[in-house]
Design brief:
Blueprint lengths: L4 E8 L4 E5 L4 E5 L6 E4 L4 E7 L2 E6 L2 H12 L11 E4 L13
Antiparallel strand pairs: 1-6, 1-7, 2-3, 3-4, 5-6
């Protein structure tokens, strides 16, 4: 399969990790919940983990690659106060100011 479209995701947070198994068919995410989140990858998409906190979704169908990347991101979207969560590599999170005393 010749991959033409890529989407890189970055996991930001203490203990947030990802691992791909079964030749890119399963994605396991540790996101601070009491259990691991298991995602089954669609047929036209492959998943690679370069580091424990960087996930690469690749494939030949742009819509499916981006839709799966959005599904992964929706497991733990980035929050605006600390910036933790799953975000795209090229995404900029606008941080909110905290409470003043």
């Amino acid at each position: 399969m010749e991959a033409k479209f890529f989407r890189f995701l970055k996991l930001v947070g203490v203990g947030f990790k990802a691992r791909a198994e079964a030749e890119g068919r399963l994605l396991y995410l540790k996101l601070g919940y009491s259990h691991e989140v298991e995602l089954t990858v669609p047929p036209a998409v492959r998943v690679f983990c370069f580091k424990p906190n960087i996930v690469c979704c690749t494939g030949i169908d742009k819509q499916r690659v981006h839709q799966f990347a959005a599904a992964v991101r929706s497991c733990k979207p980035p929050e605006v106060y600390k910036g933790k969560g799953i975000m795209y590599v090229d995404e900029v999170i606008k941080r909110k100011q905290g409470k003043k005393r």
